[in-house]
Amino acid sequence: MRIGMFCSGGDAPGMNACMRAVVRTALVRGHSVVGIRRGYEGLLEEDFYVGPDGAPEMTLRSVSGWTQFGGTFLLTSRSERFRTEEGLRSAADILRRHRIDALIPIGGDGTFRGALALAEYWDGRIVGCPGTIDNDLVGTDATIGFYTAVQTAVEAVDKIRDTAASHSRMFLIEVMGRSSGFLAVHTAIAAGAEVVCIPEAPYSIEELVEHLKELKQRGKTSVMAVVAEGYPLGGATALQQRLAQAGCPFGTRVVVLGHLQRGGSPTPEDRILATQLGCWAVEGLDEGQHLVMAGMRGGQKVYTPMVEAVSGHNPIPPRLIELIRVMAH
Ligand code: F6P
Questions:
Q1: What pLDDT digit, counting tens, does each position of 22-45 carry?
Q2: Which of 1, 97, 259, 277 is the most buried (most CB within 10 A)?
Q3: Active site residue: 11, 47, 109, 134, which one?
Q4: Are residues 199 and 255 in the same domain?
Q5: Of all protein residues, whose CA lies closest to atom 4 belonging to ligand 1?
Q6: CA 111–ligand 1 middle distance (angstroms)
């Protein structure tokens, strides 16, 4: 099989480890791998990886040392053009012309929606790997990059706590996650934040102010509130304004962690996950899987139809949200 491999959408730490696993597993199994640079946009521009020998196929040595690096060496993009019918037809023609039999896209929700659309115009097989810091895909306990993003966010909250405690302030710390609160919940538990604001279990502004007053009565002088960027009352800045108008008992400051959360060397957990998922994607192609995402659940390999993977959100166990409330006592 001639396998095309690319990353698409937001980069996530561990994507390089995943690509290394795809290349090594595929080559050991007798396949070849063509690296497509800059995701769907690069595919449309026929921007393929070229090795030092000028050949487009990746070798065992092309991916040497990739495990420890964040970002993606094949680069990534968000492509508007690919979403059009003309873009999809053109991508399918390019794949046929380059005799690519199968694709392994590494990315999130948008990447898999793109793969599903492409399959309407192209008859090669597609097995994806979940690569996004959001951990919002159904069919895997964690997506590649999630653990590292949690680690980065926790380190930031730990530092902010020092100044919050010194000034007796509340900090609203906005984390990424698109419309999922997974990153916020894990960050809040690990950093011991008193409050988490997530789309899956929103407070009304009155409930939130009431909760903050209770925290103050219990003797809390400073508060860490982790706010998911997709929170329905707005991100951390909008929430700060609403809280001030509603009688928040703490002086507040806002920190938006932003793209900081996407960078950095992947944690060992992410490297191990990425390596297994990359390997399983190739195995899946060999088994005849198509339009599925390779994931890990309870340590086991699971293939989930892409339609299902993007259909809803990886649900947040309610006990985790309850845990944050209890720990805030
Ligand atoms: O999906 C990953 C993610 O980092 C989201 O958490 C965030 O909303 C989005 O990408 C940001 O995208 P961009 O880098 O295009 O601004």
A1: 999 999 999 999 999 999 999 999
A2: 277
A3: 134
A4: yes
A5: 10
A6: 13
Q: Is 134 labeled as catalytic in the residue annotation?
A: yes
Best of 174, 176, 182, 186 for a ligand 1 pocket test (most atoms within 8 Å of beta carbon): 176
| pLDDT digits 0-9 by tens, 214-228 | 999 999 999 999 999
* Residue range(s) defining the domain that contains residue 100: 2-145+266-309
Q: How far is CA 5 from CA 11, 72, 105, 122, 307, in A?
A: 15, 12, 6, 16, 20
Query: In testing the pocket of ligand 1, which one of 137, 146, 262 has its CB within 8 Å of the most ligand atoms?
Result: 262
CATH value at residue 192: 3.40.50.460
Atom in ligand 1 nearest the alpha carbon of residue 230:
8
Predicted pLDDT of residue 312: 87
Instruction: Please tell me the pTM assigned to this model.
Output: 0.97
133, 227: one domain: no
C-alpha dist (Å) from residue 14 to 84, 263, 276: 30, 10, 11
Shortest-distance Cα residue to atom 14 of ligand 1: 10
How far is the CA of 142 from the CAs of 23, 133, 270, in angstroms? Answer: 22, 9, 9
Q: Other CB atoms closer than 10 Å to residue 287's CB: what's the count?
A: 12
Across the chain, what does the average pLDDT equal?
A: 97
pLDDT, tens digit (0-9, with 9 covering 90-100), for 48-98 = 999 988 988 999 999 999 999 999 999 999 999 999 999 999 999 999 999
Tell me if 153 sits within 8 A of 318, measured CB to CB.
no
Q: Give the burial string for 96-109 (b: 16+ CB within 10 Å, else e).
A: eeeebebbbbbbbb
The pLDDT tens digits of the residues spanning 284-298 come to 999 999 999 999 999
The rounded distance, in Å, linking the Cα atoms of 203 and 307 is: 31
| Residue 261 Cα: closest atom of ligand 1 | 4
